[in-house]
Design goal:
The complex is a heterodimer of chains A (about 280) and B (about 400). In chain A, about 25% of the residues lie in helices and about 30% in strands. By secondary structure, chain A is of the alpha/beta class. In chain A, strand 6, helix 2 and strand 7 form a beta-alpha-beta unit. The longest helix of chain A has 17 residues, at about 35-50. The two termini of chain A are about 35 Å apart. Chain B is of the alpha/beta class and about 400 residues long. Chain B is built from 10 helices and 22 strands. Chain B has helices spanning about 15-20, 45-50, 85-100, 115-125, 145-155, 170-180, 295-305, 310-315, 345-355, 380-400, and strands at about 5, 25-30, 30-35, 55, 75, 80, 85, 105-110, 130-135, 160-165, 185-190, 190-195, 200-205, 210-220, 225-230, 245-250, 260-265, 280-285, 305-310, 335-340, 360-365, 375-380. In chain B, a hairpin with a 6-residue loop joins strand 12 and strand 13 (about 200-205). The radius of gyration of chain B is 26 Å and the shape is elongated. The termini of chain B are far apart. The chains are: A alpha/beta (about 280), B alpha/beta (about 400). Chains A and B meet through helix 3, helix 4, strand 9, strand 10 and strand 11 of A and strand 6, strand 7, helix 6, strand 11 and strand 13 of B.
Chain lengths: ~280, ~400
């Protein structure tokens, strides 16, 4: 079985701050990590390889420093790693990214299963997976929480998270899956695996190595443009209650009632919507 | 999807396209135009010649998309069990505001089986036209098929804006549609407005875990597509008059066969109240210190007939299942009242609940960032405050009986 895992290197989001004067992101000193959701994709890919044999490949698009994240993927059990890196890829939105990653996957000869994390922690879009699927002309299933079985004839059954429960879905390989954190518990790399990963070659491809239309990659291939970034406004401070618990709770409840908030004795209204 | 197509219903058999085609690729068969795809180069000469808009080219080049012929706001009417998803009403609410600035009509794509009641409901909330295929052949979760059909309808009708829900289904179908149409798509928008100068759709969304907001435009490609974050925008209210919408059927579109078979839907067991739709939510976080203290949260929730939520810290500690997690990597909620107990208010948690109508926070740290977003801030030990709150609430309800 041939498995390709697409990963993204992201800044550790809890540290990202804005410079209020220039309105730009402060990236100094921000650590880069593998997108946490992609760790589940890597783990699932490696588990499939362990179960069904074959090869698991990691691929990423980004600046040369992404090699570090691909090396981390190798230390987690991935067999080979490929980096699509070119200044021409820079500034890609999800459409251009999906197109470029698909071109890389085509050059690798495609795969039986392509796995991505359900979304990246920086962009939070979750759009690249379906976009890669469309560019490859294969079906996709998002938010997979379990791969139940894969038969010899290429039939695959998965459990896919949905609001209020999950769907059991059946399709034929090849398929693209995006996975959620419930799917597994990623392993930690051993020291030995880390050492071996250091010695492995990571293949880099630029735009000339791929069969692509140059106006569909990077900034020029991106229909969307970010025109403004800003820090979300904070709401005004609320009323504080402290000191004696009994009296502060009492005065809080009084305020709530005076404000006409239906907080007490109301039957919970459960809407019939499907979300 | 065929790259070019004759819309049979519209073709009158006039033959203008046959004359216009420089490649001899069109023939008249039974008074309808038929295109030989082997000969066709997609030059578009026939489209200009046709006076009845009966020919559509689906394949498009990335560059050189003309944008001026696109008008109107269209939305994807997601539904389950023959009920509209609640996010659809939120999208209609947003669309009605956009309509004021664009002076355009609102249409909705409705695909499924037994859809007439839903079409009527869409009308009541202000949808002007329903673009519908009502057929048992369209599976509720056949996202591959739906994406294909949506793309075809959009190519034919050319709305300038296309919106879908930021739901699991919406965020699966729309990226696929955008990739088919080679246009831009902005995920999970929390604000949509029309730029007063250039009339473009300004799409604002959180990124970096809610640390920053970004405003995005899609200038040269159509439609401008966005998914709308659930539970952020206000639902449309029913129109006072009996608003009727025009129903357009797209029966000329061939429904492809899905590659994904649904074996079944398994409901979550441990949720008595659907968290996302609950009007009252009581959430616990790291401040609970121990899983056995969860009963406090549950009891308070029970007292106010609410649902139980949790921060990621409580879920990661294994105190409560992931289905209760509220926040960036969990659920987004917008209840009438949200009570946060022992939750510090990490930006990731705030992303999932800060548009609640009323936020009440109970925390022993007066500097906890949850207080920056709360209207009512009770500083104190939750192990004292919560039992006291339950006691006084019970007294209040008791005295009223």
């Amino acid at each position: 079985m041939k498995i390709i895992v697409c990963i993204k290197q992201v800044p550790d989001t809890t540290n990202v701050k804005m410079n209020p004067e220039t309105n730009t992101l402060i990236r100094d000193g921000v650590v880069s990590i593998i997108n946490p959701f992609d760790a589940y994709a890597i783990e699932e890919g490696v588990r499939l390889r362990e179960k069904y044999r074959g090869e698991v490949i990691a691929i990423s698009m980004g600046p040369p420093q992404v090699e570090e994240s691909l090396r981390d993927a190798l230390s987690l059990g991935v067999d080979n790693a490929y980096l699509l890196t070119d200044i021409a890829f820079a500034g890609a939105d999800t459409l251009a990214t999906g197109y470029t990653l698909a071109a890389g996957i085509k050059k690798l000869g495609g795969a039986d299963i392509i796995i991505l994390g359900r979304q990246a922690m920086d962009g939070d879009t979750g759009q690249v997976g379906p976009s890669v699927g469309e560019n490859l002309g294969i079906p996709h299933i998002t938010n997979v929480k379990k791969i139940e079985q894969i038969d010899k004839d290429g039939t695959i059954i998965v459990e896919r998270l949905l609001e209020g429960g999950y769907l059991r879905l059946k399709t034929k390989l090849p398929v693209l899956l995006t996975v959620v954190k419930e799917i597994n518990e990623p392993r930690l790399p051993t020291i030995k695996a880390k050492m071996l990963a250091r010695k492995k070659e990571i293949v880099s491809w630029d735009s000339n190595n791929l069969d692509i239309e140059t106006d569909r990659i990077g900034l020029s291939g991106s229909p969307t443009q970010v025109i403004k970034i800003f820090t979300p406004p904070k709401t005004t401070k609320g009323k504080f209650y402290q000191g004696n618990v009994k009296t502060s709770v009492a005065s809080f409840l009084k305020d709530i009632q005076n404000a006409g908030i239906q907080f007490i004795k109301k039957e919970s209204k459960i809407k019939n919507g499907t979300n | 999807m065929e790259p070019i197509k004759i819309i049979i219903d519209k073709c009158v058999g006039c033959g203008l396209c046959v004359k216009a085609c420089p490649y001899n690729a069109i023939q008249m068969i039974n008074k309808k135009a038929v295109i030989d795809l082997e000969k066709c180069t997609l030059c578009g000469a026939c489209i200009e010649a046709c006076k009845f808009d009966a020919i559509v080219i689906y394949k498009r080049s990335f560059k050189g998309q003309e944008v001026t012929s696109y008008t109107g706001i269209c939305l994807y009417a997601e539904h389950r069990n023959r009920k509209l998803a609640s996010v659809v009403l939120e999208i209609i609410g947003a669309a009605r505001k956009l309509k004021e600035d664009l002076n355009a009509k609102i249409s909705a794509i409705l695909l499924g089986n037994g859809m007439n009641p839903l079409a009527e409901e869409l009308a009541l909330y202000g949808v002007d036209e329903v673009w519908m295929i009502d057929s048992p052949e369209i599976g509720e979760f056949a996202e591959d098929v739906q994406a294909e059909i949506v793309a075809e309808i959009l190519m034919e009708k050319k709305p300038e804006i296309f919106l879908g829900g930021g739901t699991i289904i919406g965020r699966s179908i729309l990226p696929r549609v955008a990739a088919k149409l080679l246009t831009g798509l902005t995920a999970d928008c929390t604000e949509l407005t029309i730029d007063s100068k250039n009339k473009l759709l300004r799409q604002t969304r959180p990124a970096f875990g809610g640390n920053i907001m970004a405003t995005i435009l899609c200038e040269n490609h159509r439609p401008q597509m966005a998914t709308v974050r659930h539970k952020v925008m206000d639902e449309a209210k029913k129109l006072k008059s009996d608003h009727k919408s025009k129903i357009l059927k797209f029966n000329h579109i061939k429904i492809p066969k899905t590659k994904i078979e649904v074996l079944g839907f398994v409901k979550e067991k441990d949720i008595t109240v659907n968290l996302v739709d609950a009007d009252f939510i009581v959430s616990g976080g790291r401040g609970l210190q121990d899983p056995k203290n969860l009963v406090l949260i549950e009891e308070l929730a029970k007292t106010i007939n609410g649902a139980v939520g949790a921060s990621r810290a409580a879920v990661d500690a294994g105190w409560i299942s992931y289905s209760h997690q509220i926040g960036l990597t969990g659920k987004t909620v917008k209840p009438i009242v949200y009570v946060a107990c022992g939750i510090s208010g990490a930006i990731q948690h705030l992303a999932g609940m800060k548009s609640s109508d009323i936020i009440i926070a109970i925390n022993n740290d007066s500097n906890a960032s949850i207080f920056d977003f709360s209207q009512y801030c009770i500083i104190g030990d939750l192990f004292e405050v919560v039992p006291e709150l339950i006691k006084q609430l019970k007294e209040l309800t008791g005295s009223k009986k």
